[in-house]
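Reposting from the mailing list since nobody answered there.

I have sequence plus structure tokens for a pair of proteins and want to know whether others read the tokens the same way I do. The first protein:
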Amino acid sequence: TDVTEKLEEVVMIWIKQIKQILVESEQMRREADDIGPSAELEHWKTRMSSFNSLLDEIKSSRVRKIISILQAARSKTLKQWKELDGNITIAANEAKDNVRYLYTLDKFFGPLAKASPVMMEHVPSLMNTVCMIYCTSPYYNTSERMTSLLLKITNQMVNTCKMYLREG
């Protein structure tokens, strides 16, 4: 029982740390007013990397051994652990899915950032792709996520137009 108690203490520390990571990942991001859509892709790539690293750690042999010992001891901490494990998996899948969908927009970010009215010919295709993301993505189809993305696209277009006018 001493070993079980020590392992439960370790798992409770992990649970506290993981809960903190999950809470921080859901907090509102502070971003510059003129940030472009590439920042959205970078945010989700970073988040995907973080959660994948966390998943790798949770699936490590060291952690699995501790969890199996606690399962044999019928520890009460495992209920919280399993719930958090599921939440991390969901967050990792969300980030991976969002990166996959946002990469479909990546081909538009270059032309959108070039200081030329030529970018306007890409807008219909860009909007069709955004619509496709909204209709098919299981995670990115919320009004908050779409508003944030469209705001960043608009910011990029405004910045591009300003640069064009300054150069012209």
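The second protein, same order (residues first, tokens after):
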Amino acid sequence: MMQTFTVEAGQALIIPCDVENQGNLKLVIKKIGMDGMEHLLWVGREKMARTRRLNMETGTSKLSITHARPTDAGTYICHFDTTPPVELKHRLDVQYSPTVKATVAPEHRVAKGSSVTLACEAKGNPPAVIRWSRQEGPLPSGERQQEGLSLTLEGVDRHVEGTYLCTADN
């Protein structure tokens, strides 16, 4: 049965690969990353991954991950070489705070009466909600904030001049 583990970036976790009557069966642990690439992590007692953050708990079939990173997210497959093969699959979801960046120039000089679109994007897990606000007070629409990837100001004049903030929250 597949389990899903959800952790925040920086936390530690244990992915169990225990099966009944394991005996001398060789355990192979693979990871299929969010990019679809397969990575061999462990074969028996031999570590294949080149990171100190992944370890097998002594005398067990438990994979420990310290200081989880977004790149650790994916599907972990615990494979036992039997006939037929026995596999346990676990999904790891690593959550992290959003980062925001402008997708257009951060400063605009606009002629009176024309329009301008401000835009930014955010990366985070879970996906972030982007909100626009204005440092000097309400947006030209009268709202305190507005959701969306972009904010278009139409028919601008000196009353819409100011600093517009793009923030993200997840």
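Reply #1 (J.P.):
I read it the same way you do. The first strand starts at residue 3 and ends at 8.
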